[in-house]
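Can you give me the bound-state structure? Components:
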Amino acid sequence: MNVNSALRALREYLGQVEDLHAATSLLGWDQQTYMPPKGAEARGLQLATLSGLSHRIFTARKLGALLARLHDVREQLDPDDAKLIDETLYDYERAKRLPESFVKEFAEEQSKAFHAWIKARQQSDFGLFLPHLEKLVGLSRWRADLLGFEGLRYNALLEDYERGARAEDLRGVLATLAARQSEIVKCIAQTPVRADLGWLNQQWDEAAQWAVSIQILHDMGYDLEAGRQDRSAHPFTTSFHLNDVRITTRTHSDQLFSGLLSSLHEGGHALYEQGFLAKDARTTLAHGPSLGIHESQSRLWENIVGRSLPFWRHYLPLLRERFPGQLETVAAEEVYEAVNQVKPSLIRVEADECTYNLHVIIRFEIEVELLEGNLVAGDVPSVWNEKMKSYLGVDVPDDARGCLQDVHWSHGAFGYFPTYTLGNLYASQIFEAVLKDLPDLWQQVENGSFLPLRDWLREHVHRHGRRKTAADLVREISGTPPGAGPYLRYLEAKYSSLYGFPAPIKRKAPASPR
Amino acid sequence: MNVNSALRALREYLGQVEDLHAATSLLGWDQQTYMPPKGAEARGLQLATLSGLSHRIFTARKLGALLARLHDVREQLDPDDAKLIDETLYDYERAKRLPESFVKEFAEEQSKAFHAWIKARQQSDFGLFLPHLEKLVGLSRWRADLLGFEGLRYNALLEDYERGARAEDLRGVLATLAARQSEIVKCIAQTPVRADLGWLNQQWDEAAQWAVSIQILHDMGYDLEAGRQDRSAHPFTTSFHLNDVRITTRTHSDQLFSGLLSSLHEGGHALYEQGFLAKDARTTLAHGPSLGIHESQSRLWENIVGRSLPFWRHYLPLLRERFPGQLETVAAEEVYEAVNQVKPSLIRVEADECTYNLHVIIRFEIEVELLEGNLVAGDVPSVWNEKMKSYLGVDVPDDARGCLQDVHWSHGAFGYFPTYTLGNLYASQIFEAVLKDLPDLWQQVENGSFLPLRDWLREHVHRHGRRKTAADLVREISGTPPGAGPYLRYLEAKYSSLYGFPAPIKRKAPASPR
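Here's the bound-state model for the whole set.
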């Protein structure tokens, strides 16, 4: 087979793998949006079958032979094709370490654990979830051993979500963040409460919330002809192809901003998926290099843009129009304060920017110990509650609002949480570069003109897909290796200004001006 | 491998095949309900990949070996297992005749043809569809030759939809129906118009239509915890498992009954799919024996029940409540007349019971000639228009309302249309047996009590799945082989009474009493 035929065969083969992933993703999307309740059990089996099948097809010798053949002539290939071979080979060799029977067993247990978790959380009964957590920890330890790792066993799992990251390094970063963020939270707690946010306590029509979110998504440049927004209990983004990238959100009649910011968050993910190159569609390259980078896109839009004053200067008139009579006396500055309230709380997904990473640290520490075998699953609730008290000063009233709050462990997704924090860090580091290139950005935001930002991200982040690693991407954009500096600068500038306490260190160029 | 292990392995294997079919069906459902427009091209590729993969997995030697092993000990198996082997072997041997490359090419062409057809119909431009129709006719002739047949080539394709049926026999049945139904239509045309149906010309709130349809579906016994109704341009039913059976419908603000009767139709299909035995789930047996039998269930509910006077006696009060002020002076008898208007028209899916089969005959005759090679695709419009004139006395103004109106040919689904007519025949024949067992049925319908009928169908039709052939099922239920007699008796009794002309032959037990 000559090189061009081999490349064509590879692309065709990968196209089928991606099609199968798309079908699996659709089963997942449907499960959380429209599936009738009694369909759950069958859906679990369908997901397990497709996972096993994807794995079998992706690890077939035929693909291995094609990759080996092309790897041998790597030097003759154009850089895109060479990258495609490298990235696919990386995935292939990793997948080959897991037997299909393991993949299917894991998928079946995921499905069972997910349904047990739903019930356990509803009833706040950790005992219902415990046997599944034990099983998934066991399977994940086994998985790590099959995959191989250096240092902590956790690294094997982290690699799935944040290639190249190491738990040992994360510990250091997280410790720095914990120390500095705790300081900020303390400063805020010591400032007198300034804003009267009583106006938030109204009923907010959910259809109007929906309409506003669609308008924002449209303004961001999310192509709603190649995507859609639906409702689900837990917001998420999923992609079946760069021409079909969907998000979900939820609205609550007693919360005006939760659903809107959630749409912005998922919209950021969706812009990434819609921004891959058409020529990369149905290949390994039409993905982000890591979940942290993916999360940087959602958090950049949700937090840096969506929790800025210029953003609400632009959207307050639309809010007033959609909620007539409810916001006449509220100023943009008050909305800005409302979406940036800082208060240690129980639930990660509702946490403010200053406390968010503290929630992540708790999960990270527990996961590392579970994987190392230093902590048994049955002790998770008590360890959780202790850590919540020590990091956040919060008493956990029940497991539903404690260690049962997140879906991740029911999917056996150990190693996932740190990518949220990395997303925060990457977002700020990328955004400093945005501001250098687009000095008028905040004026554009205030004018409701988001396409320059989207196009900048498309150019510098999205279109690369998996061509660059997370670290290389951030380094090339910002000129420095990924680190916590930009994020802490952003937080300190924003919150010292918002809450009127001196920024610990003088900085220039605040990320989000008042 | 001992027999029990082989049976277990077979069931596990078939479960995976059915899971893959479920994923494919979900891709199809989503394509017609929620998929954003730009997702169409990628969806076509995904559907082709999954079709090819299903075929490869279903025709794998491993399954063949299992089936051969079990077929050898067929006599020792319990009747259900023996039937499972028989039916799976039948499918397997048939599937083996088609190479995977053919299956994929067909699926890819289906997708292209479908999108071309949408455009062609929108613009009423047959030329846009013609090359695809030519291609699909060519592929279908090839398909027939690969599958093998006796008599007309059409029989090979008919077998997919109505196993055991032969075009030569259908010709006779359809000729009888054409002759008798034309007579009825003539009699009706000669009766003076009696009812003033001007009240139909109102705007009917679509949300209210939707609510009524959900109520009817609920009353029929359709389990909405194991199913759901969505909107689509063309109503259909799809099943991912007996616990997840979905229907779609559409509403029009200027039509009160079209959407409701469509819900009843699809609801009849859905009850069938929900009525399979749980132990048959994810096996070959959890399907109907033929599309004709499937269609008998939808038509029994839509036409025999849903176009009866007792049905509207029950639902008129609900309609009055949902459409306040719009139906105060309308009597149940007038609704009954409204849903049973007879008038030769252009569009099959909107045709009344008396003319419906005439639409089918036209398609059947064209398909047979296309497959035999006696008619070229380019001549379809002129032949179509001639036949519309001769069978229905109708002039076709354009191809959008002529030979481009149905989706079937864009799927290469030649051989499908006659199953609609067979569904009509089977429905009446089955319904005569229903009335013998449930002499109070019409009173129950008038009381809104549909569960006795649903349960009768579940017992005598649904639960058998594929255990009985269409012909055996109808024969066992009715005591006679399938035929046109019951349907003609039903039509003549109903319409002679409705339109006040003498029934050609005196019958007892009219299917739907006034």
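A couple of observations. The CA atoms of residues 4 and 190 of chain B lie 67 Å apart. DSSP finds 20 helices and three strands in chain B.
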